[in-house]
Design brief:
Number of helices: 6
Structural class: mainly alpha
Low-confidence stretches: none
Radius of gyration: 15 Å
Helix content: 55-70%
Number of strands: 2
Strand content: under 5%
Order of helices and strands: HHHHHEEH
Mean pLDDT: 97
Strand order of the largest sheet: 1-2
Largest sheet: 2 strands, antiparallel
């Protein structure tokens, strides 16, 4: 599992570079032909990780219900985010992964509610969720790399 957590940290480091290198206006921009923006993708991967790992394990998430409602699958930006919300997303980017690794090593994840994703991946245990999460985040990093060409 060390490699799984290392992979997600590398992915999140790539993601954090968008936060460091683009203005709030650029992060909020939805280019023509896209349904969302860079900041939506970043918040979406944070929320999805929490849903896949904590919610499906029957554990409390580190993200608010409001954040989940705004960035879960099937949503799209409903307006520009503020600097305050950006700061929250920045802090959650690594805090969520650090806590997940601590919880995993402490054997907090005792049960898992199985899920077959819309892409057809069967998640039967926490390790499946963590592995799929890395795949999911890689997809969104690719989307963000495409969006940046148009902002």
């Amino acid at each position: 599992m060390n490699q799984t957590f290392e992979t997600i940290r590398v992915s999140r480091k790539l993601t954090s570079q968008f936060l460091e290198n683009y203005s709030l206006e650029q992060l909020n921009k939805i280019p023509e032909g896209f349904n969302n923006n860079i900041i939506w993708n970043i918040a979406h991967v944070i929320v999805t990780q929490q849903l896949l790992v904590y919610k499906l394990s029957g554990l409390p998430m580190m993200v608010s219900d409001e954040l989940v409602d705004k960035y879960r699958k099937g949503t799209k930006p409903d307006g520009a985010i503020s600097q305050v919300e950006l700061d929250e997303i920045k802090s959650l980017l690594f805090e969520t992964i650090n806590q997940t690794e601590l919880d995993y090593n402490a054997k907090v994840f005792k049960s898992y509610n199985e899920l077959t994703t819309s892409l057809g991946f069967a998640l039967k245990r926490i390790e499946d969720a963590l592995s799929f999460n890395n795949y999911h985040e890689a997809l969104h990093v690719g989307i963000m790399m495409s969006i940046r060409k148009f902002i």
